[in-house]
Amino acid sequence: MESRRFLAGHANARLLAKDKAIGLLELLGSFGELYGPVRNGGGSSTFRAVKKPADIDLNSLRTLLPPKKILYPPTDELLEFTADGGFRSKEETGPARIVLFGLHPCDINAVLTLDQVFSGRFEEPRYLARRRRTAVIGLDCLPDELCFCHSTKTDFSDRGFDLFLTDLGEAYFVRIGTALGDDIIRAGRDIFQPIGPESIDQYKDKTNRRHAAFSHRVELVDLPHILELDYDSEIWESLGRKCFSCGSCSAVCPTCYCYDVFDQVNLDGRSGSRVRIWDSCLTNSFARVADGHNYRQDKSTRIKLRYYHKQIAFVEQYGRPSCVGCGRCIAACPAEISVIDVLNAIFREKVVK
Amino acid sequence: MNGVPVATKPDPLQPNRAHVIRVQRLPLEINLFQLRFEDEELNLSFDFKPGQFLMLSVIGVGEAPFAIVSSPSRRGLIEIAVRQSGRVTTALHNLKENALIGIRGPYGNGYPIERMRRSDVLLLSEGPWFGALRSLRWYILDNRKDFGQVTLVATADDAKDLPFGDELSWLGDREDITCRVCRPAARDAEGQDHMARLIAGLRQTKFVAQGTYAVLAGEPAHFPPLWDYLLERGVSKDKILFSLQRKMRCGIGKCGHCSIGYKYTCLDGPVFSYWDAQNLPEVI
Description:
heterodimer, A: alpha+beta, 12 strands, 20% strand, B: alpha/beta, six-stranded antiparallel beta sheet, 9 helices
């Protein structure tokens, strides 16, 4: 038998001519319900289910909400109950297969973070079921002034995708991450071409241009220790005065997962469901207990918790900070608080610009 | 899709069917609820450590965390002591005996009873928090030979006005535990006198600080003078233990509400040591 030579680089990459991109999107639609960034009226874009692949915006940089909303819906039924029957776990319902198209490296890394949160000792079966049925098609990008994913080391994906597309100008360089990605490539045999030496050069060139395009650098390596040492920094007081406690930063954050729970009773008065809804640690009631005591009454203590949780608690629990540098919280904050300014201020200055 | 975790266990948020077996009125408008799972297997297998908590659902109202006040050394009925303070506790107080409820758990770390074996133990409680040490107290007394000297110091205006205060009177008759009840000055809202009396009670107690565990129950904001005294006497920071309360919606480290500094109370607590606390912001 002929010995088989596995050439990781060449075997796991293809070229996709730009005019064949629509062909790929149509092909992806045959693998499951296709979600991708769609341009809104005001110039923003949103991840949504697409009926026409042509609606997908291939040049979208930052969607309003991250793809977590598809894997971890803003509201979700956890349990059903009846007065006599007690509680029954609700299984995940949703498309049999989901294809998430257009995730940038920050978002792919964020999904990997959510995977860690919802697995482990206590598994969240609904999230994991949906996640298992989801294919991830990554897409590279050039950073704008709100991006700092190279500082958070989430500007590259080495896993977490089935296919990953890098824009080389005339064509996409397609990395194949999984056997499912390979299935897609094989199903679309006629739209992909093999890569050649010049594609590798172009890929390197794109990588270098991308690295050079970041306008901010945020120091994160020593951050947990600095935050601990400077726990009483006046930065938090000044941020507390600016923050509106609206929770927008949590809603748009691709790794924020905190939730609240309430029981919803049906009109028969004897049955109902337990519902989970996204919550934010910035809201006043987040740490308030039944007798009325609020462990974080002061706004500054709440905004501080947000940073401490992302930058210290996460490192302790999961080995890396949870911020992926996507810049969504900066774009969404009505008080114009910027995580880049805050983190830099912790190192360099005493006040936040 | 390679590498995506697979769910292999049952839904951890699914409560098990259980019933309120008996309700007993305690002082301070606290009710003792005796609970039992419907599934007899579950009653036998429900294994917990003193200091752990459960999540209890009142059907149609909601779910809340409650410390277990019975001891794993006495299986069969699970006991919780509940004051009426919010929606779920009010609904729970209105339930009739035999009512169907939901229970899941146990959760949290509990007291480190394996580490505490063969050590001397100080059980120190401020007023109405006397009941908070009940599970551990019974566990220790039921496994008495596994522990060294056991000393209980409690503050109370009158023991019979405390939840489980009746247990104090006949604990005093036992020879294998030293009990001291100290009366604080009247109307001591700041708890200063409670702590001063606890310290005075400890001064009259012979104990070897080295290797001794001191378990505190009270309002955490009142603790600092007691901490100082114990540290001065030479008790190790990791052997000064106390349980903290926070808002909890899930009990399993997902909802985020119970965070204290860098920790989740439901996973890393609710029992913390002074060593944890001194490195942890937001404890008191």
